[in-house]
Amino acid sequence: MPTERKREPSTGEPKTCPECNGRGWTDNLCITEERAHRCSYCDGKGFDAAGKECYACRGTGLIEVRREDKSPCPLCQGAGVYPVPESMTIEQFAFHPGKKV
């Protein structure tokens, strides 16, 4: 785990980060086309055995697979506040990957 993170220069009083709402991490739940998977309900055909549009994929043949993926907030770099004070140590950051809560 890195011991230092890049920080933006402080300007003004730190406030709760508007990007992550103070959590220090963001959810990556967006699924791009290359990460979509063949629909298991219609086997990627887009329709069921009766020829009706598949209810699961809505006729696309692809279905999203979502997973939770926490990444440091791109704005505050995991601090949870923005701008990040220069005096703030990594132990004070809100985002601690691998730490059981």
Furnish the topology, listing elements before pairings.
Layout: E1 15-16, E2 25-27, E3 37-38, E4 62-63, E5 70-72, E6 81-82
Antiparallel strand pairs: 1-6, 2-5, 3-4
Describe the structure in brief.
With 101 residues, the chain is mainly β. The chain has strands at 15-16, 25-27, 37-38, 62-63, 70-72, 81-82.
What does this structure look like?
With 101 residues, the protein is mainly β. Helices cover 0% and strands 14% of the residues. The strands form three sheets. A two-stranded antiparallel sheet has the order 1-6. Mean pLDDT is 78; it is low at 1-10.
What gyration radius follows from the Cα positions, in whole Å?
A: 20 Å
Number of helices: 0
The N- and C-terminal alpha carbons lie at a distance of 17 Å
Give the count of structural domains. Answer: 2
The low-confidence runs, each spanning 5 or more residues with pLDDT under 50, are 1-10
Q: DSSP strand (E) fraction?
A: 5-15%
**Succession of helices and strands:** EEEEEE
The 3D shape can be described as rod-shaped
Percent range of helical residues: under 10%
- Largest pleated sheet: 2 strands, antiparallel
Q: What would the keywords be for this entry?
A:
101 residues; mainly beta; two-stranded antiparallel sheet; 6 strands; rod-shaped; disordered N terminus
